[in-house]
Design brief:
mainly alpha, 5 helices, about 0% strand, about 75% helix
Length: about 140
């Protein structure tokens, strides 16, 4: 089962680091994806595949939101340029879609690899929450 708390925390970590990583183009965003994916995988725990899955989700979420921001910026630019801008940005829509898919894919893969490492380093996710494995929550 997916631990959405781990995914959202990994995404938020990647977003915050990515905002500060703008000062170092390329490397800052790469580090943000790796650290966010690692955090998601570690928090989810459970081994290599579980960490991979949670890192993948955190990175893909970041990639989709980044792509959405790119699309909004292009739409605003087209609106500001008037009718000619609308035509140009409409034609550019397919290229923007391809760029968004590429960005989401790259962010997801790097986060997934780091998430796998994080999941490998935390094979027992219940240990970090202070729960005993033989008891269910709210018992």
């Amino acid at each position: 089962m997916t631990n959405w708390r781990a995914v959202v925390i990994g995404f938020l970590i990647a977003t915050v680091i990515g905002l500060f990583g703008i000062a170092v183009p390329g490397l800052g965003q790469l580090a943000a994806g790796l650290i966010g994916g690692f955090a998601a995988g570690y928090l989810a725990g459970g081994g290599l595949l579980r960490g991979f899955w949670h890192g993948l989700l955190a990175g893909a979420l970041g990639g989709l939101i980044a792509g959405l921001l790119i699309a909004v910026i292009v739409a605003i630019a087209g609106w500001a340029a008037g009718p000619a801008g609308g035509i140009l940005t409409g034609v550019a829509g397919l290229g923007i879609f391809a760029a968004v898919v590429l960005v989401a894919f790259v962010m997801a893969i790097e986060s997934a690899l780091a998430g796998a490492l994080g999941g490998l380093l935390n094979p027992d996710p219940d240990r970090d929450r202070g729960r005993r494995p033989d008891r269910r929550p709210y018992q």
